[in-house]
Amino acid sequence: MRRLPAILAASLVALLLAAGPQAASPASGAAFPEKGKIITVIMPWPAGGPNDLGARVLAPLVEKDLGVPVQIVNKPGAGSQVGITQLAQAKPDGYTLGVTALPTTIQLYVNPERKAIFDAKSFVPVATHTLDPLAIAVRADSPFKTLRELVEFAKANPGKLRAGTGGLLTITHFSIIQLEKATGAKFSVVHFEGGPQQMTALLGGHVDVNFDFPPQFMSNLKSGEMRALGVMDKVEHPYVPGVKTLTAQGYPISSATARVWSAPARTPREIVEILGRSIKKAMDTEEHKKRIGELWMVPRFMDSDQTTTYWAETEAQIRPIMEEELAKQKK
Fold first, then answer.
1. Which residues constitute the domain of residue 115?
2. Within 97-170, where are the H helices?
3. How far apart are CA 81 and CA 74, in angstroms?
4. What are the pLDDT digits (tens) for 278-311?
5. 205: burial class by Cβ within 10 Å (0-12, 13-18, 19+)?
6. What are phi and psi of 234, to 5 degrees?
7. Which of 120, 151, 273, 290 has a CA positioned 20 to 30 A from the CA of residue 283?
């Protein structure tokens, strides 16, 4: 996501690090994990979705490395709020982890209407597993061959271009706002109830451009029905090679779903480091690379501290957008 002023992001990083596992006793992770214990990973979404499937690729490899069972337990509800609340309230001993997708988790607690009892300080990130960036795509018959052409038209003709999202206040919606704020472009935003409806609308000519994850439209790209104009990341997307990032095209904007394995706050740092090293080792295996690729996910390891920084920077971007959009709805 586009960086905000360094002071704001740095202050959030400091708060998150202060709430992390640094205060643990030096020997607290010496015997972790104990034989016979089970590590439970709370999955706050239903079985079968991308978050669930990605975790189920990683878990058995971590289990093999640590020598204890690592079980995924689905606790869906309220857009992941039910399971994440349970994670925040769990014992900080390393035996209860959870998948906290960013920015979804942030969007829950920065929205006062959600009445979440957790925030960033409720968790210690263990490691980032995958980071799936969004892309900007149009139909193949669109007059816009480049992202710059699209942006310049949207600046000169505010509201004329219809941009599809997967829903109000979702990451796809926020990505449009990011581009608008960075460029001065203005789109007419059209919300749908998810990626499939969003894609159908674009192909049917009901919207002009979509902000979505490349796996949602890979078959359409390969068939020649659609054209990708840019990837919202700092590096090119492995599944759409040759499509430049927004940064490379002069728009320093990133937007992605990061799937983070987290622990409750106050989990000892030694335990977090043991778990993080195991995740890294699992992700480096050929089996993981093959199976995660089959799910069209992008592996992107970040350790606890790197993920803490990423979390803070993401919140610094999300919070003002959320506040602004909620204020608009109340008018």
1. 6-132+256-330
2. 104-110, 147-156
3. 12
4. 999 999 999 999 999 999 999 999 999 999 999 9
5. exposed
6. -90, -15
7. 120
- How much is the pLDDT for 331? 74
Give the position of tokens 């942006």: 151
In a domain, 187, yes or no: yes
> What are the b/e assignments for 168-204, b being 16+ CB within 10 Å?
ebbbbbbbbbbbbeebebbbebbebeebeebbebbbe
- Count up the domains in the chain and report the number: 2
pLDDT in tens, 85-100: 999 999 999 999 999 9
Q: Measured on CA atoms in the order 90, 62, 120, 82, is the torsion positive or negative?
A: negative
Residue the block writes with tokens 């016979």 = 36
CATH of the domain at 260: 3.40.190.150
Give the residue carrying structure tokens 């034989």: 35
Q: What are phi and psi of 207, to 5 degrees?
A: -135, 165
Strand 96-102 and strand 256-264: the pairing is: antiparallel
Which residues fall within 8 angstroms of residue 159, CB to CB, at 6 or more apart?
A: 186, 187, 188
Say if residue 107 is in the same domain as residue 67: yes
